[in-house]
Fold:
Amino acid sequence: MIINQSESQKTSLMSVLWDIQKKRRHISKDDITKISKSYNISRIELEGIISFYHFFHFEDAGKFTIYLNNAIVSKHKDFEIIKKTFEDEIGVKTGQVTNDLMFGLFETSCIGLSDQETSALINLHAFTNLTPKKVRQIITDLRNGKNLETISDYPKNNIQYTPSQEKTIFFKSYKAGKGLETLRNIPPEKLIQIVTDSKLKGRGGAFFPTGMKWKFCRDNEAEQKYIICNADEGEPGTFKDRVLMNTHPGLLLEGMAMAGYAVGATEGFIYLRAEYTYLLDKLNQTIEEFEQKNLLGKSIMGIEGFDFTVKIYRGAGAYVCGEETALIASMEGKRGEPTIKEYFPVEKGYLGRPTIVNNVETLCAIPRILEMGLEKYLSIGTKATPGTKLFSVSGDCEKPGIYEIEWGMKLKDFLDLIEAKDPHFVLFNGFAGECLSEVDFHREISGENLLAEHIQFEYKDPIEYTRKMSAVGLRSGGSFMVFNSNRNIFEILKNVSDFFVAESCGICVPCRTGNFLLNKKLNKIILRHGDKTDMSEIEEWSSIIKQSSRCGLGKTSTNCLLTAMLKFPEEFEQNLLADSDINQAFNIEKAVFDYNEIITENEASYE
Amino acid sequence: MNKLVNILIDGHTYQVEEGKNLVDAAKENGIYIPTLCHFHEVNPPLGTCRICTVNVNGKTTTSCTTKVHEGMEVQINSPELLNTRKAIIEMLYAEGNHFCPSCEKSGNCDMQNLGYDLGITKSRFPHVYSNKSVDFNSKRMIMESNRCILCKRCVEQVKTNEGKNVFSFVKRGVNTNVQIDYHEEEKLTDAEAMHAMNLCPVGAILVKGMIYEQPFGNRKYDLGGTDKTPTINGKFSDRDTKNKYIVATTSLAGCFGCHMSLLDIDTEIVDILDVVEFNKSPLTDIKEFSKRCDIGIVEGGCANSENIEVLKEFRKKCDILVVVGECSINGGIPAMRNFVPLKECLEEAYIHGLTSEIGANIIPNHEDIPKLLNNVYPCNEIVKIDYHIPGCPPNANHIWKVIKNILLDTEYTINHEEFKYD
Structure:
């Protein structure tokens, strides 16, 4: 691939679009004409890019653009009441903008505030723990011209638990430069060796060995290489990266610089999800401080040739951009569609050059490993997964928030720790993860004795399942949503399915169409119109989507449904009708309703 | 030429050039992997349709994006993979509006050809009846988004000489569609515009005035094709073969064309009458079922309340239900009203239409007149159907071969000419 001039220029496109969206509250036809001219692309290509990201609007989105999180945790709180209150106060329905263009109200996927729902973003400032009273006050304040930022709630960290002082890795005191200092005696190859020996794996949830990724990237010769921090934490129920960036932005920058040092990259980028725009100032300030202290810039720590800079890119609302190749496409000013992975980013990534994409937590772990020493790090956690893991806990428990736990904790103990009363159903690893039930509660949270993917869910019999799975560890990127037995499992599954229909990029058939059709099928079961045939069809369709989708989004989109069917067969059976040769979802009264209306109306007009 | 490597495909070893695309490497050795979005000029491959999903060293992936290397083990035709491939095509048929008999691209359509190839007779997924835009605004082209399968060929391949995109994906997820840049489209040469139409694997991109340049019957896929042996889904258990088989037929929202075709086997009908007795059927004019039937043959989809009643009755009274023709399988021509509100349809027919009397204001209705449904439904969305015979109408030989196949429990091969109808 040859990088032409226009492609490298297009990297500024997203920030140009953001500037216009922010200033004018939408991107107009004239803007599109102007921008497409200056980037030398066709208008339709630009429209394609803009329409991919749901925070960009073609029509005025209101002076104050309000977004409500429609993920299940929010729905279980007061989503409906809050939505209604907003609608009543501003006088328009969700999805609309007031006539005076003052307010626009929209729904969005999880905004990373699951521990303080019901929450909203207004012009990307956070408003948390909303009550109808609070909503009315916010609208009144905004009408009276109060400053949006001052009335907003800067999200709380809610760090609920860390292990004992000597075992804590992330949430302990931090002194800028302490990690980088250690590099004076560590050449890049040795650093990669340490990371490899630490068994650190991608903490976004994919668990690719970090040391191996770095080594691949180092081995690829190139004039320029890049380090990208994936801070597009979009998995519903996850917010650990938000807290990590809020409390330890310096640690992240050090981790990135170290990655640069290890692989020979001098430029780093943080791809920050738009929902976390309120973290922007803090991150920029930290970057500036680091530059002043020579912890970023040229010859860092006085090490000759250790140059590294960090810039921030902002996403614009697309879950799929958390997939590394989609993220890179987005940074290059394209639609955030995952590639076919002809090359991995470590071979040809950002602008066609070797690129490392690592999660926030992964990068933050590295300076800590160096600070505390490999040996000590390896003594924490389990053999396959040393160290600690951050969990974002939300749902039906007394203490939602962030937990730093040592790998190896039993799930049962973890549920006690978060004070989950009557835990019934756990969404482990977010919407793309699996459903856990009582049969899993005695398993441990770790990467021990993992099964190959294809044999993981084959056990139909719960007793057999328990026997075979008891020693198998549970690994997660960090989203942990717990639901009690009063919750309707179908409401949760429908929410998950709606999410994937909304967030599929649309480029491949099984994920785009399959999930859409599966969603309708799920509706049939929920409405109690389905029978056993429908259940086996759901199973078949889910497997096809899983088997043939183009990227991780599609491949994992049906995990939750498949595992829920496995673990909660009674709840599904309760909703099924007896088998029939006739489609019981078809309702003749409904089907002729329109006709009857038309005839009645027509007859009334005779006179 | 690169060095040769050994790969294993469905248990056989082949020598192929290292680094070659798996689709091409297999093709050179006479092995066919079905593809749809794959196009030799587009590099890197698109990998959007996922039809060429195969199993490589234990993991499913697409062949068009796989480069061969030494020792690679490939599974192409396991039952599971064949089913996945079929399902993906069926998803596309359900997602868009693919009425082959009324499509300009018929015979040149890659997806239609794949449908024949994979032996698809119906979609297991309920039809969405998409109502996306049909864009006539650009100077030379028509963009029929309801037929677009979002393969991305045009987006990647059709550029102006300044390198600008003429087509682009717009929106995302299930709302994604391809749109044309009118301004850039004007800059294409006529040959480039034709290239865009030919590049499109379905009938989504059409060049005005050039649509029928190549006559039907003379098109890319009109002559090829393979014969098919249908599979038997259900059998009669220990039936007393001395008695005649009892068959019922009906036409729901259809044109009776399938019934005409049914009779189109000339003198053979006499032989059939030796073994078959017709019960409720327009052929016998028996209005009500007088006994239980072995086979029910249904033409047409469901457009009104009577169709539903009749179809359910057929399901109850017949052991095996066979639907014939496009209308019964995907709604066909009657289902084209699914894109227009019912009120508009009725007003156009009885009040505002050109043939209505001036001052007409009555939409006929009476308790004896069946009520129109909000949509036209294919039969398999109302009751379980055992066999689907596509065609508009299906060939008489095709219909009777299937019926005989079911009745006599013997295997027949349907010749390609017998089931290829467009």
Summary: Chain B touches chain A through 69 residues (CB under 8 Å). The longest strand of chain B covers residues 245-251.
